[in-house]
Amino acid sequence: MRLITHLRHVDLAVPDYDKQRDFYAGVWGLTEVASDGGISFLAAEGSPEQYVVRLRKAAEKRLDLISFGAASESDVDALAERLRAAQVQIISEPGKLDTPGGGYGFRFFDLDGRTVEVSADVAVRKHRKLEAKESVPVRLSHVVLNAPDIDATRTWYETHLGFALSDTLAHPRMGQVMHFMRCNPQHHSMAIARGPHTSLHHVSFELRGLDEYMYGTGRLLRAGVRMIWGPGRHLAGDNTFSYFLDPHGNTVEYTTELEELDEDTWHPHVHDFSQPEVTDQWGTANPMNELIAKESFNDVDRGVFVAPPV
Predict the structure, then answer these.
(1) Which of 227, 252, 241 is nearest to 279 (CA)?
(2) Range of the domain at 17
(3) For the VOC domain, which residue ranges apply (predicted)?
(4) Does residue 180 sit in the same domain as residue 262?
(5) For residue 131, is it within any domain?
C-alpha cells in the first residue's frame, strides 16, 4: 500500500548562503516566506506547500533532505512502523514539526544515506493562480538523485515507500542509466540516475505553460545564468526542459507539461537514450554529451548518513 502522496520540498546546505538565497529568491522566481539566522524557506507562488526549497548556511555543500507528503498522521505512523520493522535507520520518531506550516512527521535514511522526511497535516499556504506570461515556478515538479546502483535504490523505494516505476532510460553501451519513479499519477516525482557517487542530480520546477517556460528560460539567459542543456522536450514524461546551474553548481530545471498517467493501465517502457529523439523530441536542445552528463554528477554529497542539524 502506497502511503506517500507527493513531493513537498528539497533542502540544500551551502557555504555561500547569501549568493544562493539571492539566486532562488531573485532570478529563479521563488518567494522567501521565512528566514532565521542562516536558514531560508522559499515557496512557489502557485503551490499550496509552505515551501519548496529550504536553504541552510553550512561549511560544506550537501543535500540536507527530501520531503514527501502523506495523507494523515496515521499514515505517517504506519510508514514509520513499516520502516522500523524493515530495520531502516530512523533519524527522528514521528512527532510535531516546527518548520513553517507545522505538521506531523519523521525522518530516516534511505539506502544511499540521504535524509528523507515524510509529513502530514502541514498547513496549506495561501497561493494563487499564475497569470499568462508569468515566468516563475508554479510548484516543485520532481527531484532526480544520483546513485551508484540504480536498481538497488529503485527496489528500496518500491519496497519501503511504495513508489512505482514509470519508465527507464538505457544505452546500448552503458546499460540502464535512469529510472523514473512515481508516487501519484504524475509520470515521476523522483528519478534515480546512475552516477559515480551519491549526490543530487537536479531539482525541477513546473512553469505555468509552454509560453511561460520559454519566457523563464529567456529571462535566465538574459540574466547570465548558465544553461547547460535545453530548451527541449524529453520523450519519457513528455516534459520540456531547460537545465541551469545554481551558484553552487547544483543543476536546476524549468519544465512544464509533465505527463499524467493512468496508473491502472500504464506499463513501463525502456527508452534508448542514444536516440536523439528520446532525449529531445523537438531537436532544439544542444546535444547531450559527456560534459553535460558530468555537470549533473554534482559533487560528492557530504551529507550521506549524516542527519542535518535542523
Answers:
(1) 241
(2) 4-120
(3) 6-121, 139-257
(4) yes
(5) no
* Residue of 101, 118, 109, 115 lying closest to 41 (CA atoms): 101
* Look-up of cell digits 552528463: 293
Cα–Cα dist 265/259, whole Å? 14
- The band of 153, judged by pLDDT with boundaries at 50, 70 and 90, is very high
Residues 143 and 284 in one domain: yes
- Arithmetic mean of pLDDT, 41-57: 98
Residue 80: burial class (beta carbons within 10 Å; 0-12, 13-18, 19+):
buried
Cβ atoms of 54 and 64 closer than 8 Å: yes
> Are 181 and 288 part of one and the same domain?
yes
Average pLDDT score over residue span 3-21: 97
Q: Clarify whether residues 19 and 99 are in a common domain.
A: yes
Tell me, what's the pLDDT at 308? 97
Residue 291 has a pLDDT of 78
Q: What is the pLDDT of residue 294?
A: 86
Closest CA to 284 of 232, 212, 220, 229: 232
Q: Are residues 147 and 184 in the same domain?
A: yes
Nearest to 309 by CA among 21, 115, 51, 89: 115
SS3 helix, strand, coil % of the chain, rounded to 5?
A: 20, 35, 45
pLDDT digits (tens, 9 = 90+) for 78-105: 999 999 999 999 999 999 999 999 999 9
Residue 242, CA distances (Å) to 49, 57, 60, 221, 256 in order = 23, 27, 27, 10, 10
Q: What is the CATH number of the domain that holds 60?
A: 3.10.180.10
What element of type H or E holds 83? Answer: helix 73-85
Q: Would residue 70 count as lying in a domain? A: yes
* 159 shares a domain with 96: no
DSSP string, 1-53: ---EEEEEEEEEEESSHHHHHHHHHTTT--EEEEE-SSEEEEE-TT-SSS-SE
